[in-house]
Amino acid sequence: MTGHELADLLDAHGFDFFTGVPCSLAEGLIAALECDPHGRRAPYIPAVREDIALGLAAGAWLGGRLYDTTGSYDLVWWIAAALGIFAALINLPVRETPIVRPRPELVAT
């Protein structure tokens, strides 16, 4: 099965969001998802690490679920704003100062 055939099969079964860490074993599928000439598929969104890919997928799923439940994205935006404010607040106590290391030629042996 080629990457384009698998992408068509996934599309036929309703899969509309793709993310992950790019792997050479799935390059045919990734290429099919990234360059659909008709723009029918949701794009493949690459991630640097698996935890980031999991967060992307969870956020997309939750956003869709909340839209289906409430009929609006308002709650999704409020949750995103609250998470952003929370992230800013927990980083306030962080003090980034340079580490002073002794120069090697000045260290007595």
Any key phrases for this structure?
109 residues, mainly alpha, two-stranded parallel sheet, flat
Structure description:
By secondary structure, the protein is mainly alpha-helical. It folds into 2 domains: 1-46, no CATH class; 49-96, no CATH class. The protein has 4 helices and 2 strands; from the N terminus they run αβαβαα. Strands 1-2 form a two-stranded parallel ribbon. Strand 1, helix 2 and strand 2 (44-46) form a beta-alpha-beta unit. The radius of gyration is 22 Å and the shape is flat. The N and C termini lie far apart (65 Å).
Rg is: 22 Å
Name the poorly predicted regions.
none
Mean pLDDT: 84
Q: How many distinct helices? A: 4
Strand order of the largest sheet: 1-2
Largest sheet: 2 strands, parallel
Q: What is the H-and-E element order?
A: HEHEHH
Determine the N-to-C terminus distance. 65 Å
Number of domains: 2
Number of E-type strands: 2
Shape, principal axes of CA atoms: flat
Strand content: 5-15%
Which range best describes the helical content: under 10%, 10-25%, 25-40%, 40-55%, 55-70% or over 70%? 40-55%
Query: Structural class, from secondary structure content?
Result: mainly alpha
